[in-house]
């Protein structure tokens, strides 16, 4: 879990390039599942409201663009290398249970997974690659990819921006950690529900 202060420092120093790089890595590279997608977007939105360094339109544009390109790269990795990329042994950066969780999510929701996965940690990283492995028609994937990227990449920063404009700038630092925790908790809720359903079914 990344600390809010670290995210704020990253955005102050790396600005839009940091957003582009992290969102792309989290959505396009299999090793990017540990990156702070939801919390980073929320903090970027809040900072664009209370500080002068970031513009909300620039934040949303960067996040949407990086999310579209990232998912496309993930899809191409799946199409090019197929199931073999998921057969590697467990390591510090590769957890088979994350792949299995994403696969179950994909089997349940089909193409809509590409949209829904944007809001689910871990699944967000592996879903486009699984779509590529499964041979999903690319124009269909691209449509879901763009819709999901806009809803997530623009929606989460916009929520942060609205929060930042609602809470006085002098007190926003007191609440930012709580807001990030709420967003991350909500994003983890689908994963917890799915795990509960699987455990109940197994029992």
Automatic annotation (TrEMBL):
<feature type="transmembrane region" description="Helical">
    <location>
        <begin position="175"/>
        <end position="193"/>
    </location>
</feature>
<feature type="domain" description="VTT">
    <location>
        <begin position="35"/>
        <end position="161"/>
    </location>
</feature>
<keyword id="KW-0472">Membrane</keyword>
<protein>
    <submittedName>
        <fullName>Membrane-associated protein</fullName>
    </submittedName>
</protein>
<feature type="transmembrane region" description="Helical">
    <location>
        <begin position="56"/>
        <end position="78"/>
    </location>
</feature>
<dbReference type="GO" id="GO:0005886">
    <property type="term" value="C:plasma membrane"/>
</dbReference>
<dbReference type="Pfam" id="PF09335">
    <property type="entry name" value="VTT_dom"/>
</dbReference>
<dbReference type="InterPro" id="IPR032816">
    <property type="entry name" value="VTT_dom"/>
</dbReference>
<feature type="transmembrane region" description="Helical">
    <location>
        <begin position="16"/>
        <end position="36"/>
    </location>
</feature>
<keyword id="KW-1003">Cell membrane</keyword>
<keyword id="KW-0812">Transmembrane</keyword>
<keyword id="KW-1133">Transmembrane helix</keyword>
<dbReference type="InterPro" id="IPR032818">
    <property type="entry name" value="DedA-like"/>
</dbReference>
<comment type="similarity">
    <text>Belongs to the DedA family.</text>
</comment>
<feature type="transmembrane region" description="Helical">
    <location>
        <begin position="141"/>
        <end position="163"/>
    </location>
</feature>
């Amino acid at each position: 879990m990344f600390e809010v202060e670290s995210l704020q420092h990253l955005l102050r120093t790396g600005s839009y390039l940091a957003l582009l790089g992290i969102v792309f890595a989290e959505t396009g590279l299999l090793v990017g599942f540990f990156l702070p997608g939801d919390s980073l977007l929320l903090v970027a939105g809040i900072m664009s409201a209370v500080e002068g360094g970031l513009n909300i339109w620039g934040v949303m544009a960067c996040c949407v663009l990086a999310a579209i390109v990232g998912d496309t790269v993930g899809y191409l990795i799946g199409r090019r290398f197929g199931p073999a990329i998921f057969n590697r042994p467990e390591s510090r950066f590769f957890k088979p249970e994350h792949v299995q969780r994403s696969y179950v999510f994909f089997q349940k929701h089909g193409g809509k997974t590409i949209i829904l996965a944007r809001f689910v940690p871990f699944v967000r990283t592996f879903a486009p690659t699984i779509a590529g492995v499964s041979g999903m028609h690319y124009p269909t994937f691209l449509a879901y990819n763009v819709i999901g990227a806009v809803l997530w990449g623009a929606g989460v920063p916009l929520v942060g921006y609205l929060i930042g404009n609602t809470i006085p700038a002098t007190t926003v630092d007191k609440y930012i950690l709580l807001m990030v925790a709420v967003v991350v908790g909500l994003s983890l809720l689908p994963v917890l529900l799915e795990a509960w359903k699987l455990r109940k079914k197994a029992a």
